[in-house]
Amino acid sequence: MEQLIIKGGVVLEGEVKISGAKNAAVAILPAALLASGTSCISNVPDIMDIKNLIEGLKSLGVSCDTTVENEIKMDCTNIATQKAVNEHVKKIRASYYFLGALLGRFKKAEVTMPGGCSIGDRPIDQHIKGFKALGATVKLEHGLIKVEAEKLVGTNIYLDVISVGATINIMLAATLAEGKTVLENCAKEPHVVDVANFLNKLGANIKGAGTDTIKIVGVKELKGTDYSIISDQIEAGTYMVGVAMTKGDVVIKNIIPKHLESITSKLREVGCTIDIMGDSLRIHVEKELIPCRVKTMSYPGFPTDMQPQIISLLSVIKGTSQVNETVWDSRFQYVAELKRLGAKISIQGSMANVTGVDGLSGCEVTATDLRAGAALFLCGLIADGETKINNAIYIDRGYEKIEEKLRGLGVDVRRVTKDE
Ligand code: EPU
Q1: pTM
Q2: What is the Cα Rg of the chain in Å?
Q3: Could you tell which of 327, 376, 397 is best to mutate to test the pocket of ligand 1, judged by most ligand atoms within 8 Å of the CB?
Q4: Which of these is catalytic: 76, 117, 186, 292?
Q5: What is the pLDDT of residues 317-334, one digit of tens each?
Q6: Catalytic status, residue 117
Q7: Which residues are CB-neighbours of 274 under 8 A, at least 6 positions away?
C-alpha cells in the first residue's frame, strides 16, 4: 500500500502549474475511437485513471504512443475488438465512454460495469435510456454491459437528471447516427464542452454544448485530429484551498478563470484575495477567514468534486459553516477520517455542519476516494506533526505529480510503500 506522509505547519508559497483536466481527458481518449486514423492529444494529465484508460484502449487494438510527456498519439485505424473487459477497464468509472464511442463507430460494444470512486449509488440508467432511444438494444449479462444496434437514428432525448457521463456518452453515440439528435437537460460542465469541441474537430456537427440543449447532426465519418485538453478546474481549486488553509501566497498557472468562477467567488467570500492575471491567478490571505454556506450543484454551481476540500478549509475557520451536497448521496464517508485529525463536523442527511477548530493534529488516516484523499492532504498541510495518508493511490487517480507539485510549494512530503 502506498502511503503519503505530510509534515504539517507549512505556508504554501511559489507557483504551481495545473495539468490537463482529468474528466475531459477520460472522455476525449475514448472519443478518439470514433475516428479511423491517428489523433494526437496533448495536455493529457499523467494520472492513474489515464494509465488505466490507455491499457483499456490498447486491449481494443489501439496503438498508443506516449513517448512525449503529457501527449498521446492514438492510431484507431485497426480496432481488433469491441469488447473492453480487462482489469484496467474495471478500475475506472470512465470506461462507460467505451460504450458510446464503440457503439457509435461499430454499432456494438461490450464493457465491464464501470468502477471508480465509491461516492454513492452511481447508476447509468440515463446513458442506457439514450442508447435505446437511438435504436440500440442494451443487455446486462455476467457483469458486462452489451449494446448493439443495426443502425443508430437521431431523435429527441430528455435526460431525467443532469448527468455529465450521460450527456457525453449520448453525444458520442449520436455523432455518427443518421439524422439529428436533440439532447435536453444536458450537463454544462467545461469538460462536456471540451469533448464536443474535440468531436467537432474530428468532423462532427455538434452545437449547443455548454447549454441545456445539445444538437447533434450525424455525419458519415470522422477523421483523426490534434487536440489540446483544457486545464483541470478541480486540481486548481484544490491548490487554491491549500493556499487558503495555510495562509500562503501562490500563483496558480495554466488555468481557465471562467471555469473557476464558483470556486474563486466562494474563496473570496471567506476572505481570500484572488487576482486573475490572464491564464494564471494569485491567491493570498491577508485577513482572518470567515465561515460560509456551500451548496454543491452541477456547473456553473459549486462542484461536488470540491466538496471535501472546502470542508477541510471550513474545518479550520472559526465559526459554523454548512455544506449541502446535492449531487452524490454518499460523499461524506471521508468525514470520519477528518475527525481523526480533530475536525468537528456533524452530518445530517445531505448537510454537513462544520464548526471551525483552532488546529488539527496529524495521525494515520485512510483515503476512501480521490477527493477524500485531497481533503486529507490539505488537512495534513496544517496539522500538527505528520499526517500519514493510507491508500494514496486514490490521490494518484486524479492529481498529477502530487509530491513534486507540493514540494515546489514548500511542503515536506514523502511516499512510502507499506506491506498490506
Ligand atoms: N445519475 C443518474 N443516472 C445516470 C447518471 C447519473 O441518476 O444515468 C445521477 C448520479 O447518481 C448523480 C448525478 O446524476 O447523483 C450526477 O452524476 P454524473 O453522471 O454527472 O456523474 P458521472 O458522470 O458519473 C462525473 C465525474 C465525477 C463528478 C460528476 C459530477 C467523470 C469520470 N466523473 O461523474 O468526478 O463527481 O461527474 O460532476 O467524469 C471526481 O473527479 O472525483 C469525480 C467523482
Answers
A1: 0.97
A2: 21
A3: 327
A4: 117
A5: 999 999 999 999 889 999
A6: yes
A7: 240, 264, 267, 268, 281, 282, 283
